[in-house]
Design brief:
This protein has about 150 residues and is mostly helical. The chain has a single domain, classed as ANL, N-terminal domain (Rossmann fold). About 50% of the residues lie in helices and about 10% in strands. The chain contains 6 helices and 4 strands, in the order H-H-H-H-H-E-E-H-E-E. Helix 2 packs across helix 6. The longest helix is centred in the first third of the chain and has 20 residues. The radius of gyration is 18 Å and the shape is globular. The termini are far apart.
Length: about 150
């Protein structure tokens, strides 16, 4: 239900997400690694709450607490496109996801992969794309990209 209203407000959500994003890369690599590791730990806890991922963690004998940095991600089993494709097709049948975005990959490596995204996630990804353009020198007022070196 909330997704229906979020979908109508996606441009507003992008407008609020964009200022929260850093428009430059941090100069302190150590700080960047700490941020990345904190986010990895948070992501693993969230993933473990999803039955699809919990099953894969358990089969591999891995708990979220075992994953603390990028190097630890190698402990997780590989997720194939076919597994992800089957899971997404199954989820898409649930009416709960009717108001979610059903985006697809281009299919350049074969059959396109459909991904479900909540309006909130879609707005964040769109804001992140705008951030990338701005960092690369895009001027939203003239629609051109230029960068001095």
């Amino acid at each position: 239900m909330l997704e229906k209203y979020q979908k109508k407000l996606i441009n507003l959500m992008i407008f609020f997400d964009l200022p929260k994003m850093k428009l430059s890369l941090p100069q302190d690599y150590g700080k960047l690694v700490k941020i990345q590791n904190r986010r990895i730990r948070k992501l693993m806890k969230a993933a473990y709450k999803q039955p699809f991922y919990k099953e894969r963690f358990d089969k591999a004998g891995v708990k979220p607490s075992d994953i603390n940095c990028a190097e630890d991600l190698a402990k997780l089993p590989l997720l194939t496109k076919d597994e992800l494709r089957a899971w997404m097709k199954e989820l898409a049948k649930d009416p709960k996801y009717d108001e979610w975005y059903h985006d697809t990959t281009s299919g350049s490596s074969g059959e396109p992969l459909m991904l479900l995204m909540s309006p909130r996630e879609k707005a964040f990804l769109m804001a992140n794309w705008f951030r990338v353009l701005l960092v690369a020198g895009y001027n939203p007022f003239i629609g051109k990209t230029s960068r001095r070196i």
